[in-house]
């Protein structure tokens, strides 16, 4: 789907994106929501390293990195970075609801 963004052809970076590398967002994929960190802003969308849900309602990094380029309209909203669950640094929660 076409987006209303200007592309900087010399760098291939989407200069009009409201997001920056390092931001945390929620992305919609197959009608499910996934939190993730913005990695880069290629001219064709937004590259995100997504987390996966756990069985207890928190999130974790998948064993194999889940980095994909999504369309900007698939980004639901910007969120705060994840918070580790107790002493288990392998599972995280989010202050924002989604």
Order of helices and strands: EEEEEEEEEEE
Report the mean per-residue pLDDT as an integer.
Answer: 85
Helix segment tally: 0
CATH hierarchy, class? Mainly Beta
Largest sheet: 5 strands, antiparallel
The CATH topology is given as SH3 type barrels
Helical proportion?
under 10%
The count of DSSP E runs of length 2 or more, i.e. the number of strands, is 11
Written description of the protein model:
A hairpin with a 4-residue loop joins strand 1 and strand 2 (13-14). The strands form 4 sheets. The chain has a 5-stranded antiparallel β-sheet, with no helix packed on it. A two-stranded antiparallel ribbon has the order 1-2. It has a two-stranded antiparallel ribbon with strand order 6-7. It has a single domain (13-93), classed as Roll (SH3 type barrels). The chain has 98 residues and is an all-beta fold. 0% of the residues lie in helices and 47% in strands.
